[in-house]
Hints:
Elements: E1 4-15, E2 24-35, E3 39-43, H1 50-57, E4 65-70, E5 73-74, H2 79-84, E6 86-89, H3 101-111, H4 121-127, H5 143-155, E7 161-165, H6 173-188, E8 192-197, H7 200-206, E9 209-214, E10 217-223, H8 224-229, E11 233-240, E12 254-257, E13 263-268, H9 274-283, E14 288-295, H10 298-306
Residues 15, 24, 26, 44, 46-52 line the site of adenosine-5'-triphosphate.
Pfam families: ABC_tran
GO molecular function: ATP binding
Organism: Pararhodobacter zhoushanensis
Amino acid sequence: MTQNAIEIEGLKKTYAASGKSAAKEALTGIDLTIPQGSVFGLLGPNGAGKSTLINIMAGLVRKSEGRVRIWGFDQDQNPRQSRAAIGVMPQELNVDPFFTPRESLETQAGLYGVPARERRTDEILSLIGLSDKADAYARTLSGGMRRRLLLGKALVHGPQVLVLDEPTAGVDIALRHMLWSNVRELNRQGMTIILTTHHLEEAQEMCDEIAIIDRGRLVVRDSTAAILARMDSKTLLVRAAGPIGAVDLPRGVTREDRADGWLALTYPQSTVKAGALLASLHGAGVEVIDLTTEQADLEDAFLELTGDKAAV
Ligand SMILES: Nc1ncnc2c1ncn2[C@@H]1O[C@H](COP(=O)(O)OP(=O)(O)OP(=O)(O)O)[C@@H](O)[C@H]1O
């Protein structure tokens, strides 16, 4: 058995032209593996191709080229098994208003051919915190409850891989916490989790590994820790009373004498503190008259990684 939950090779998708819109190459050749048991983040700006990618994984969109294996099952050779191995919590709140949560879960289980005795409806209702609403019509449920129901529907067939498409878009903090604790619990039980998000911060909180896609191509795939390390740098800007000569700076600090008169000292925050830089300047007899800092925020880091400011 493969150790990868997902294996994707040379995946391409071109949406055919229709009406006035030209054909659109949404994925230009993606190679990606996602290890079993991970919480994996798929990041990218609007239109990057995230939904296309997960919909292909889920068997909802037909790929143009390439190979996709879900839990070791090739989509072309074993379409049924590969589909059964994955569950998707979609973005849209498309629950049937006339079904109760229990009926929704039962119907979904029926669609996946789960025999009645193997259904885990009560267990799922409890996991998503809807046991007391099990028999209420969906139209009486709050937005948050509907979203939890969608999570439940993605779980009825006991998939090994759970995909959450922008799970916290428009969600309040309480629901976000609940979703994350559900996701952590499922992952603890062995489920592989893939989530798409626009927010690096969210991926940072939840994911072991991250892939960033941009305009249909994979830009970065690395551990969250490694991606965060790239964002470690901070810059101290100093203006001095007079010219600044040689300064003995801590290791890892780079100096730039800017044309506008500011001295820019860029340093890794994890190992160097701003105070140490000021002490160095003081030691070199520099009289600081003004100072400020610059820090790459998450958006900047994202832009740096995708290498194109026009992309967002
Ligand atoms: N059914 C479709 N027909 C034609 N083009 C499409 C279709 N679905 C998506 N696209 C186009 O393919 C590209 C990728 O879209 P996709 O929805 O996969 O991106 P995304 O990263 O999920 O974006 P978002 O975060 O906005 O959902 C976009 O340019 C989009 O307009």
